[in-house]
Amino acid sequence: MPRPKMPPMKKKLNVNALKRVIKILFSYYPVLLPIAIACIIFSAVTAAIPAIFNQQVIAAIEEWFVSRDWASAKEEILPKIILLASLYVISLIAVTSHTQLMAYITQGFLGKMRKKLFDGMQNLPIRYFDTHKHGDIMSYYTNDIDTLRQLISQSIPALLQSSIIVIAVFSIMLWYSIWMTLVVLCGVIIMMIVSGKIGGGSAKYFIRQQKAIGKTEGFIQEMMNGQKVVKVFCHEEKSIVEFEKINDALYEDSRRAHAYANCLGPIIMNLGNILYVIIATVGGLFLLSGAKNFSISGMAFQISIIIPFLNMTKQFTGNINQVTQQINSVVMGMAGAERVFELMDAQSETDDGYVTLVNAKIDSEGNITETDERTGMWAWKHPHTDGTLTYTKLMGDVRLNDVDFGYTDDKIVLKNIDIYAEPGQQIAFVGATGAGKTTITNLLNRFYDIADGKIRYDGININKIKKSDLRRSLGIVLQETNLFTGTVMENIRYGRLEATDEECIKAAKLAGADDFITRLPDGYETELTNNGANLSQGQRQLIAIARAAVADPPVMILDEATSSIDTRTEAIVQKGMEMLMKGRTVFVIAHRLSTVKNSDVIMVLEQGRIIERGTHDALIEQKGKYYQLYTGAFELE
Amino acid sequence: MLKTLAKSIRQYKLPSILTLIFIACEVVIEVFIPFITADLVNNIKSGVPINEVIKTGFLLIILAILSLSCGGIAGLTCAKASAGFAKNLRFDMFNKIQSYSFANIDKFSSTSLVTRLTTDITNVQMSYMMLIRTAIRSPMMFVFSIIMAYIMGGALATTFVVVVPVLIIGLLLISRKAMPAFRRVFKKYDRLNESIEENVRGMRVVKGFSREEYEKQKFGTAAEEIVKDFTKAERIVALNTPIMQFCLYFNMVFVLLVGSYLAITSGGTTIDVGQISAMLTYGMQILMSLMMLSMIYVMITMSAESMKRICEVLNEESTLKNCDNPTTEIKDGSIDFENVSFKYSEKAKRFALENINLKISSGMTVGILGGTGSSKSSLVQLIPRLYDVTEGCVKVGGRDVREYDINALRDSVAMVLQKNQLFSGTIKENLRWGNEFATDEEIIDVCKLARADEFISSFPEGYDTYIEQGGTNVSGGQKQRLCIARALLKHPKILILDDSTSAVDTKTDAYIRKGFKEYIPNTTKIIIAQRVASVQDADMIIVMENGRISAAGKHTDLLDNCDIYKEIYEQQTTGGGEDA
């Protein structure tokens, strides 16, 4: 949920982020934005001008009210008021246009930023998602983009407007009287110092409040997740006591933060009032003492100067106040922008592959040729430097030669891995958590790139294959099942977007999922939300298997794909799985040895090395690690 | 709804009321200020002696200081009241949740409870602050300013007859139109964020199927639609400013025009220059107060959703309550199920358990087998009264579980849940959940029994090793053994293990069961398992299917009589179906 994050105050503000936001804004709206800005400036100027008219009208009143001669006064006053009114009409048009334009621009900009962020994210390598917390990535979309909204739709226009009014009013004040302007200036400086002090205190406690909220949230999260354990152990009273402590601390910080923030308003307002009195008194003194005015206009002190001057004082302090209030959100906006750019600038996944996967058929001469229609036969299209093209039939032959890999440079996870998987073979990986089983599959589809050695797919170095085509030829089913919001059918179709309903149902039957799907309230049209929360883990795994089945890839990777299905159901699913695996190269990772028993080759991994390999019978014969695992002498995990 | 929430104000009623009082004072002073200012202006204008001018000025400064003090104090009390209200609300909610039964917990997902306790409360806190600060300020300001404007301006005040209705109608129309639009688009926006989250979480799937372009396209369409809706809603709201400006401008022109006419024709008797400028100030105040009112209106309706979600938690009554005069003494560990049927909620179509009859005598070891969804867990959860039966009754120690004090019952019936959890803290702290007064020796004893002592001792910090949130720094098998030790520390009369050794290797599993037999022979032990090996030595094995007991008996009997059991057994032994 959106919650404004306070910027880290110590860090120096990055004005570049703000500059970049403005630059992007201009590039998106090269015409509309300047128009909006012009309207803002215009309406600001018209907002400042009335002071002059006030002064002139009041001067006229002063002049005429002794004689009570409205007829002659009219001559002087009416044109001025009409001019004022017409200025106001224009100002209204300007205000309406810039607020409408800014609403349009802001939302358009946010939409484009969201899209840019999302598109960029899709291109990021898996490493990024493995090394960043999902909550943090989400907060780019929720918190940080929201701070941009505030920045663009409110802060920047308000700042622009306020500073223009301040400048305009300041010039008019100078026009009237330099002495009195200096007095106003002194007052304003005091106000700024005070608001800086209070604002600083408020910021300090807001940061502490943010931290306290984080801590409370962490505690709540843990307790809510473990609520059933709390109940079973009758631990309610104790967790309430513990919560009270954290809750009280949050209250303290929250109270202080808001206390500072709440006081700022009345203080600034009343300092403005005091300044007003001072100006009135000083003005009165000047007027009475007949001191010489010093001004650009050269006007002498008179009541018609003091009254508009007083109004201008209000306007001046009011706008200074506006500026100080916006600064907080500008700072937050900049911090948000900086973080958004961080994600945008993250290194995207590189792909130098040029070998592509195409539909193929065998022509009359027995050669493999490319075709547009789906033939069920695939070929690697391999362009060579001399301009020739060769087609290699997709078989599913995967070889790893002497592969080394580490997620970071300093820690090798896999060492000297050699694997030969012939088309149609089933290869199993067994080993403790962290032994490197999943890592191998991460390398096959190039979620990560190997450090040393070679991986060949049908004889082609996988670095030469375009990543999307490589991945299209590999179906993966992961232990942690991720389903998307949508119907069951749509989720299965995710494997191959152009699959018909019949094909999807066929795949579901193969995966053994059809049985439970048809029993769901709306069958295949049942809506799944929240990662299929209404299904059991085992049912979700079955859908994931169906999803991979519909893709019909020549090579499949099953990473603990049936771990949550009980042995009895697994036995039922087994038949379908066998059908599914037939004719494909399959890599299986399983905790349950019964799942891998029938594999052509079983590899036992330990600390990144293959320590045993062979068929089930051969490994049992060998009486090594696998034998110990099988007889239950060792615990995996 | 408001009544429920208001109950949580409690000790912060005083600061809330003080806020209202001080703000009322502030408003009164604030309204007087332009009045005095007009005086000051007239003083200067009419050339009264300078010490008179200073006197009025002095009065003004005092008023400003008073207003500042009132405003400042109100700011402090208001912060205290709203932060305190939020604190109480959070506490009340947390408290309430602690009283929830399993059935209540099932109703709310844990993530939704977290949002309710954090974001929703923050929203309510902000609205409450806004409310007590402006609920009295704006209407008062409005009324006073109108009165003062009439006193000062007389005929000039007719401007408000035009301006006020225009503004009120304008603001009402805008919020009427904008709010449903916003609510709609916020819902869409939430969905968009959910789909982003799905993508972030399922990136391996997206990339594995090379669906990046597809996802981009899907997102693009959804995002564009949201931009359209947001723009529409935002543009309606953007009309606020021009309407406000219009009213201000109208007021300005009207006051100047009519004011100058009146001033000149009356020679300054009906109205003078000072009054004209005061009228401008009052005009501003009146319009601002209306603007503020419309803002509170919007803010409160926006947070209405949060309030509703908080009330849902506060108004949820625990489905389990102690009976009157509950018994705290549990005689022994015998368990009887008599014609028990059970479903998770009244609305559920299907019974999770049907017609269960079962007699377990104290000290027995009972194994339960069955596929996923066969209601094994449902069965055992009725014993410590985590749920209440729908029909029939469950007896522990010869008495209906509903006659016991819930805490006493649960202290005697220790259950190791399937979805178990350790909490952040040291191993010792975690184990002491079972018994907070347990000595170190007792802790080591139960850990030995649960076969956890070995690995705990191998940690450099031993029993003081810190467990991270969610227990991420111990392996699944270790976690399960710690959870068993924690339950053993209760010295229960009945111990229930709900698939609690699935990640423990078979050898250790066997040792643990052996230990149970030797060291806690009088405790009734109920073991749910996937592996036949884990239960085959039990005094009784229950085979569950579709919420019914399909067979019960000893291993050898079941092999002869129960096909399902035989099937599972053969598959796991001849098929080599050992869990590693």
Explain this structure:
The complex is a heterodimer of chains A (637) and B (580). In chain A, 46% of the residues are buried. Chain A has helices at 15-28, 32-48, 50-64, 70-122, 126-131, 134-176, 178-225, 227-232, 236-289, 303-344, 437-444, 467-472, 488-493, 501-510, 514-519, 537-551, 567-581, 593-596, 616-622, 625-630, and strands at 356-362, 368-370, 378-383, 389-393, 398-405, 414-421, 426-431, 452-457, 460-461, 474-477, 486-487, 527-528, 555-559, 585-589, 601-606, 609-614. Chain A has four domains: 1-173 and 325-349, ABC transporter transmembrane region fold; 178-292; 356-393, no CATH class; 398-630, 3-Layer(aba) Sandwich (Rossmann fold). A six-stranded mixed beta sheet of chain A has the order 10-13-14-7-15-16, sandwiched between helices. A four-stranded antiparallel beta sheet of chain A has the order 2-1-3-4. In chain A, strands 6-5-8-9 form a four-stranded antiparallel beta sheet, with helices on one face. By secondary structure, chain A is an alpha/beta fold. Chain A is built from 20 helices and 16 strands. The two termini of chain A are 35 Å apart. In chain A, helix 2 runs antiparallel to helix 4, helix 3 runs antiparallel to helix 4 and helix 14 (501-510) crosses helix 16. In chain A, strand 8 and strand 9 form a beta hairpin. Chain B is of the alpha/beta class and 580 residues long. Chain B has two domains: 2-315, ABC transporter type 1, transmembrane domain (ABC transporter transmembrane region fold); 335-573, P-loop containing nucleotide triphosphate hydrolases (Rossmann fold), CATH 3.40.50.300. Chain B has 21 helices and twelve strands. Chain B has a six-stranded mixed beta sheet. A four-stranded antiparallel beta sheet of chain B has the order 2-1-4-5, with no helix packed on it. In chain B, strand 11 (540-545) and strand 12 (548-553) form a beta hairpin. Chain B is elongated.
**What's the number of helices of chain A?**
20
Share in helix of chain A: 55-70%
Instruction: State the secondary-structure class of chain A.
Output: alpha/beta
Q: Gyration radius of chain B, to the nearest Å?
A: 36 Å
**The CATH class of the largest domain in chain A:** Alpha Beta
Estimated structural class of chain B? alpha/beta
Q: What's the main sheet of chain B like?
A: 6 strands, mixed
- The CATH architecture of the largest domain in chain B would be Up-down Bundle
| Count of DSSP-assigned helices of chain B | 21
Low-confidence stretches of chain A: 1-11
**CATH architectural group of the largest domain in chain A:** 3-Layer(aba) Sandwich
Distance between the termini of chain B: 54 Å
Mean pLDDT of chain A: 82
CATH topology of the largest domain in chain B: ABC transporter transmembrane region fold
Instruction: Round the mean pLDDT of chain B to the nearest integer and report it.
Output: 86
Number of separate structural domains of chain A: 4
Q: Just give the CATH class of the largest domain in chain B.
A: Mainly Alpha
